[in-house]
Automatic annotation (TrEMBL):
UniProt-recorded name of the protein: Acyl-CoA dehydrogenase
Superkingdom, natural source: Bacteria
Keywords, alphabetical: FAD, Flavoprotein, Oxidoreductase
Cleavable signal peptide: none
Similarity annotation: Belongs to the acyl-CoA dehydrogenase family.
Species name: Streptomyces microflavus
InterPro entries: Acyl-CoA_Oxase/DH_mid-dom_sf, AcylCo_DH-like_C, AcylCo_DH/oxidase_C, AcylCoA_DH/oxidase_NM_dom_sf
Annotated Acyl-CoA dehydrogenase/oxidase C-terminal domain residues: 115-238
């Protein structure tokens, strides 16, 4: 929650008054979803320097001077990314500079967004599994469908368990958004594993970018890079829950040692 503005007092995006009641922003942000085409940018920027260090939210118009946007090459072309550069770009303060906990509000919004993304990742994993099951029923080897082989059945059963476990986590996060990051970790892991196994189980026809299986692989890999990694999400959730207690240089003060 402390690094929303990209690094605190040094680095990230900085905000300073322009002397006329407005604000100017300086800095850059990478991997902004749809940043190249958005008509309005919502920017978290650090303001105040050392005396009044705080994070504030600003609105920046796509036509603002000092704004440069570059579309980046993205693994998943359905999630276009851009690099946003702000060079003393004029910005409008969103809300009031009254000590509101902006970082806390962003963290709460992030948990809710994570719950939505978890549901999407579960849908992708389920879709990849459904298509793989349909394929192994049709693909024949040694005079029988490959789906009839016990080894293939075991692999598919393991994938089904992963998908359903992730689905249950997504349902829980929809009920309690605070569990969003943990549900997202479960869903991203399931999507990555299922997509990878789908490629292997489609091996009888080879794997090329022309086959739809690659769409699931690219979505799973790109989402984990954007919203993960999985171990970081789980570590964050464990820290917020106090699962391992306070940690010092000598190790955990209380809790469970692993």
């Amino acid at each position: 929650a402390a690094a929303w503005a990209g690094g605190g007092r040094a680095g990230g995006i900085q905000a300073h008054p322009d002397g006329g009641g407005g604000w100017r922003l300086y800095g850059e942000a990478d991997r902004v979803l749809d940043g190249h085409s958005a008509g309005l940018l919502l920017v978290a920027a650090h303001a105040g320097g050392y005396p009044r260090s705080r994070t504030l939210l600003f609105l920046v118009s796509a036509e603002a001077e000092g704004l440069a946007r570059t579309r980046l090459t993205s693994m998943d072309e359905t999630r276009p990314l851009a690099r946003i550069e702000l060079r003393d770009a004029p910005a409008r303060l969103l809300g009031a500079d009254d000590g509101t906990d902006v970082c806390g509000a962003l963290a709460d919004t992030g948990s809710r967004a994570a719950a939505v993304l978890a549901a999407e990742a579960v849908g992708a994993a389920a879709g990849a599994l459904e298509r793989t099951v349909a394929y192994v029923k049709e693909r024949e080897q040694f005079g029988r469908a490959i789906g009839s082989f016990q080894a293939v059945k075991h692999r598919l059963a393991d994938l089904y368990v992963r998908v359903e476990a992730a689905r249950s986590a997504a349902y829980y996060a929809a009920w309690d958004p605070a569990a969003g990051p943990l549900a997202l970790a479960q869903a991203l892991e399931a999507a990555r594993i299922v997509a990878g196994e789908a490629v292997q189980l489609h091996g009888g026809i080879g794997f090329t970018w022309e086959h739809e299986a690659h769409l699931y692989v690219k979505r799973a890999a790109a989402d984990e890079l954007l919203f993960g990694p999985v171990h970081r999400l789980r570590d964050h959730a464990a820290g917020r829950a106090g699962l391992f207690g306070a940690v010092t240089a000598d190790g955990p003060v209380r809790g469970v040692a692993v």
